[in-house]
Amino acid sequence: MPEVDPQPVKHSNFTPSCSTNDLLHELNQRGLIAQQSDAVALGEHLNQEPRVIYCGFDPTAGSLHIGHLVPLLMLRRFKEAGHSVVALLGGATGMIGDPSFKASERSLNEAATVNGWVSDLQRQVGNLLDAKSNRQQVHLLNNADWMSKLDLFTFLRDIGKHFSVNAMIAKDSVKQRLARPDQGLSFTEFAYSLLQSYDFAVLNKEHACTVQIGGNDQWGNITSGIDLTRRLNRQQVFGLTLPLITKADGTKFGKTETGTIWLDAAKTSPYAFYQFWLNTADTDVYRFLRYYSLRSVAEIEDIEHQDSNRAAKPIAQRLLASELTERVHGKAELMAAERISQALFCGDFSQLSLSEFAQLEQDGIPLTRIQDFESPMLSRLLVETGLASSLRQARELIANGAIAVNGAQISSDTHELPRLQQHYVILRRGKKHFHLLKFGNQR
Question: I need a labelling partner for 149 at 20 to 30 A (CA). Which of 3, 84, 205, 385 fits?
Fold first, then answer.
């Protein structure tokens, strides 16, 4: 297993701009606290001195997705309040997978695959938390470093004896799976809670970690870790969970028709990432600003007030998209996403670079590949791309001026289509229906 930051966590100088009780108050204002253990004691605990707060991320793919952004940004909020934070990569627990509220058992992955994902996530999380320039406050650890030293008998005797099967079965996440006779719950998954609990105990003993945060589906695992740490280390520790992010209509947030929105540019292009946030519904955008933006609550309230009095389109979506795209992908990719968006809006593609066309090709707009030796008529291309249902309709659309090629309106059928960056042609029907053609034999 790859070893990550094995040194004990060191505390930074505790000079927050506001008291930590103010931070917890702000988190409540943002709607970012679902549950917490002993809220009054937690506030006092955080006020006394800089603490170590951790959140775990199991490697189930080579990238995190936008569902992980809220806990990552929560770590950042604690860091900026003067605390140290630990992002724990689950090189060991990722070999099993958390069963909490999952409808069926996860597929087990090979060790080499999980190790590769750990390395990928290490880089990704490190960049998002700015670990290189904040080595005293940001620490990346891997639970395989201590889990790999456990043998079965030690695990059963020293850890397992502290867990009541009755209490474990009573947890909602377990009961839900036990109620599905077609699935059930394997012993492997049943034991996951013990492993996560042991993580907390180890981090408390070796790194003085006293607070764990996670999604609200982790509450059962977190409270088990609090109890195990008390039993093993005689230490009081705390837990705090974040709400499940949903849209105003109650549907799950973070999925699109094309699938998951990843934080890795190779899986979701910066342009597609930007567009995802830009298309946030008005009923959701101010709540999402509170969740995802590092702007103050007062500033977000001011944005909402200004938008409510604005005759033109609200600016909240653009602010949200710009902030998150820059945070995840950097300033250069934000500017590229904005250039692509502007080009599609105004129809001038002459300034787009080859890499920006590659983003459109990846997941920006629908794509059709054309072999170089082919030279089809425009009408045929409209049918092949789905912009027209038949050749007759295609010719009518062309004759009526409803078709544009590379932003220029076309009035006659032709096979001579000018190419952008030597390979690309952009077709448009009406104002909003785009299709990208790529000519050539290469992929």
Answer: 84
DSSP letters of 42-104? HHHHHHHS--EEEEEE--SSSS-BGGGHHHHHHHHHHHHTT-EEEEEE-TTGGGT---TT-SS
Q: Residue 9 class from Cβ within 10 Å (0-12 exposed, 13-18 middle, 19+ buried)?
A: buried
Work out the average pLDDT over 197-226.
Answer: 96
Ramachandran quadrant class, 355 (left: phi over 0; alpha: psi -120 to 50; beta: rest): alpha
Partners of residue 367 on adjacent β-strands: 436
Residue among 371, 376, 340, 367 at smallest CA distance from 427: 367
Q: Identify which of 373, 413, 375 has the alpha carbon closest to the alpha carbon of residue 393.
A: 413
- For the beta carbon of residue 186, count every other beta carbon within 10 angstroms: 13
CA angle 319, 345, 275 (to 5 degrees): 40
Active-site residues: which are they? 60, 65, 68, 102, 106, 196, 217, 252, 255-256
Q: Is the pLDDT of residue 1 over 50?
A: no
Closest by CA position to 405, among listed 393, 417, 416: 417
Helical packing angle, 69-80 and 282-292, nearest 10°: 40
Instruction: Name the band, by pLDDT with cuts 50, 70 and 90, for residue 17.
Output: very low
Q: By three-state DSSP, how is residue 184 classified?
A: coil
Residues 6+ apart with CB under 8 A from 49: 11, 14
For residue 127, the number of C-alpha atoms closer than 13 Å in the C-beta half-sphere is: 14
Q: Taking residues 359-368, what's their average pLDDT?
A: 96
Q: What is the pLDDT of residues 100-120, one digit of tens each?
A: 656 556 678 899 999 999 999
- Give residue-wise pLDDT tens across range 223-250: 999 999 999 999 999 999 999 998 888 8
Model confidence, pTM? 0.90
